[in-house]
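Researcher: Hi, I'm a grad student and pretty new to this. My advisor asked me to get structures for two proteins we've been looking at. I'm not sure of the right format, so I'll just paste the first sequence and hope you can take it from there.
Model: That works fine. Here's the first sequence with its structure tokens right after it:
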Amino acid sequence: MNKDLQDHILKTYFTIRVGMALVGILFPLVLWFGGLLIGVKLQGSISAYYHTPMRNVFVGSLFAIGTFLYSYRGFSNKENIALNFAGILALCVALLPTSAIVDLKCDTFTAPYLHGISATLFFFFIAYVCIRRSSDTLDTITPKSRQNFYKWLYKTIGSSMIILPLLSALLLHLWGETQSIIFFVEFACVWAFGIYWIAKSIEIRKTQDLKQF
């Protein structure tokens, strides 16, 4: 393959991956600080921003994430299927918002549970990719000298994407959206998603196989 075309393809691939990670990392920050700039106080959860003037940012970011995950081709069929489901669930989170009642209390975990279930399953599918499917590239193209570090990192990040959504659900059940700590638990979960994509991109970028693509 022509070297210029090869470089163009690789740069485009990694730019898209890093861009996806940045959307995840900036998502809660833009909601929080962007909201403050226009007079929106810190909400009790990320989902509550749907019922504020920051709605477009909330929905647009989730659509960007969902579209990318569905369009992105996983390294294996199992990873691809998991990412497709995660992409669809991200769209469901945007399209099935929590209810706006007194003080914007979140009805995520009352019937029909669709928003909360979609959000939780989204992170579970990404956690599955992080913990189980990351080895698809690790065992295939990543030098053995770096495999143990990445395996530890991915298991840690993946575990956080299981624990944090469950913690958020518990706190919502106990407090509704009266405590901002719920926002920061969800903040950490979204950042775990972004950090995984950055770490995975760095891992793949360093492989010799891609340099010979």
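Researcher: Oh nice, that was easy. Here's the second one.
Model: And its structure:
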Amino acid sequence: MTGRSERSRVGVRLRVVAAVTAVFGIGAIVLAVALLNVVESQLVDERFEAAEADLNAYLDSLETGESGDASMAIPTESAFNSRLVVVDQFGQTISDGDTDSTVIELVPVGEPTTLVAGQVEAVDLGDDVAAVSSSVSIGAEQFTITAANPLQPVLDSLDSVRAALWVALPILIALVGGLTYYVSGRALRPVQAITSRVREIDDQRLAERVPEPAGSDEIHDLAVTMNGMLDRLETAQRRQRQLAADASHELRSPVAASRTQLEVALARPGDADWPTTARAVLDETEHLGDLIDDLLVLARIDAEEHPPRSDVDLDDMVEQEGRRPREVPIVVHVVEPVRVHGVPSQLTRAVRNLIDNAARHATTEVRIELRRAGDVAEIIVDDDGPGIAEADRERVFDRFVRLDEARDRERGGAGLGLAIVREVARGHRGSVEIGDAPLGGARCTLRLPV
């Protein structure tokens, strides 16, 4: 178990590192390629622009002389940033930019001429040259002038940058991966501490809690949630143990009473009043059956079983339970038609327990009301008994709690009736409370959402 948990933890860490490194690596490579392309395009455009500027400057320098003659000065390569090449109409190279600046007579002196330059356009002289050209007409002569700017220095610089990037990018990606591994390890360290502590907690150590790291991040929320779960488990275990202890004590009483009566009768069978003994044992058996039924109801509620729910007419239920014979008269005072959605058997048990509890402590009368207050149905049970002190009105809903005047099992029951009522109310998103009744005794009010 420990090995599998450790491998799982490391696996999560490595998956985080792999994901971050892959995303960063792909993004860095794409960004580097795009940046190189943009820089290369910008530098090449600048070379073309420089060649075009040189060509335009040279065309502007062409002029006719005062006598009307036309001449063309062929500059050397040092005169411009670009290399100028002049080709005549017959394809002969007049100047390739390597010679010194010369003046070429284009037409006879004294003959009027007109210089007309064409549009400057880019030309393809290879991948390592940025070249533009323009046609020039001087009289009857046609010339093509090309300005060429070498791209090799640009390409060499880009190759150097590209080589540096291919060396730097793997190193940078590796650094990011290592940093991610380190940071993720520190981030997962509290999770490891929580896992180790939870692994040590068993059913005998539910009082322990996992460490809560500082801050308010997701790991802190996880630790708080885990501790909340341990609180609930500890509370549930404590309730189960208390229920088992209390149930054992309550179950022992009727069994011991029945056994005592039978042993006394068997010790002197001839003098024993067997009908009386049988009735006494039967009463204890009935009490034992009621106690077992209540324990089963609580066990189902504690197990959070979800029996089928349906619409329940509370008015019919209250009237039916009010007609059941009890020690004191039951008066159904006010009943309004109210329907709720819930578990019929649980709601019936809750209403019956309220009425039985009131009848057990009433002197002469129990009064029942059912009314609707907005979206809530209220079942009110009043009695004219001694009532319940305000300090005990919450305690009576605990399991196996019987007040001093109800210690007698014949009248006080096992102390599970009101506990069942509260559990049923909670399971139906309702509530139950105890107050003072107009009759002088206690008023129990069960509220359920309509």
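Researcher: Is there anything I should tell my advisor about the second?
Model: You could mention this: The first strand starts at residue 71 and ends at 74.
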